């Protein structure tokens, strides 16, 4: 078991701290059911202290130069990559994803530290032509202040770096509440940030077995000026309401219901490759994974056959074992949800091409990769986010029908489609009501592009040159009497 980076206390103001109550909670490996560690179980009082100390740190951190912040972040990135194997092992133990995927996430998550460390030096203001000769009109950009972040378990490193990197680069400080199932990766990041020379109080992590108390502090405390959340739409709406009284700056990446459309002229081999990458990444437990397959009638049967064959070739098991390509679901509730959606679809007429049931494993939460056909309106699986290794397939005849099915959801995070018709590509890309669209691509996440959704999938963007704007306020300066 990794030791150097395995921390079990919260990290506040540069110190490792137990919860004020002395309480701890268990972090369990979802592949085996084994105890990994006992972690500080913090509450509202702990979060309040973290916010207050983050505010004290902000008063000095905001005055550092962009170059100074950039140099520290570069050291942090280098340490993350140097410790890639150990970070990946911790991640796989606590969330179950295969070790190769975890290593990929370390590199992906680290890329945000590298990117925003560079962007820190490119937060430019403006000189605007003045309306009178005795004035100068300037726009200055300043850090918003103390930020808070609440992050999910499915990407326990990348979802944190995507938020804390732009905040820290902009000159903000941040308090993070990681998912209760995956605090160890977050705490390991703090250890490396300290080694890189990040001053105390700039990065703080408060662990808790329940998000309610800590989350309420992070969304209501008057010293918190910005909140960033990745998680479910219902919880996002609660945080929006709680933050309203103090009118905080907000970023929300919420639920998804991603369509994956395959047109008759698509390259089927490419579409299958994209479908497998999108659907089965982290065992289907991602907000942007393909949730509904919408396949044109001319290639429907061929596509389903190939998808089922590729799904059957996946190997389930403990992510630390060699050759494993599919890990467990995160907990029993996840198994129950996926089983319920599949059972409902079967009762209402869906056909199981492959899978369709849990995979027996001592102590682990596994579900067989599943392909269903005959999906219709009225089935729960047609409208709900699955968050598991299940491919429900719709059949359509005309382009307009596919677009209507794809857009028939309150969510609008990611969408995918495969076509070789250039005119159709532009038409469909324009019509899809989503913040991100993969065209002949199944994996679209990168630090250089803006990540985020529309409709009830959230607001704001993470990554890219736009991502740092979420942590900055513009100040207009009018200088008169210059004639």
Automatic annotation (TrEMBL):
Q: Which residues form the active site?
A: 253
Q: Which InterPro entries match?
A: Ald_DH/histidinol_DH, Ald_DH_C, Ald_DH_CS_CYS, Ald_DH_CS_GLU, Ald_DH_N, Aldehyde_DH_dom, Aldehyde_DH_Superfamily, Succ_semiAld_DH
| Residue stretches making up the Aldehyde dehydrogenase domain | 16-476
Alphabetized, the UniProt keywords read: Oxidoreductase
Q: Which domain of life is it from?
A: Bacteria
Q: Which family does it belong to?
A: Belongs to the aldehyde dehydrogenase family.
Q: What is this protein called?
A: NAD-dependent aldehyde dehydrogenase
Protein species of origin: Bermanella marisrubri
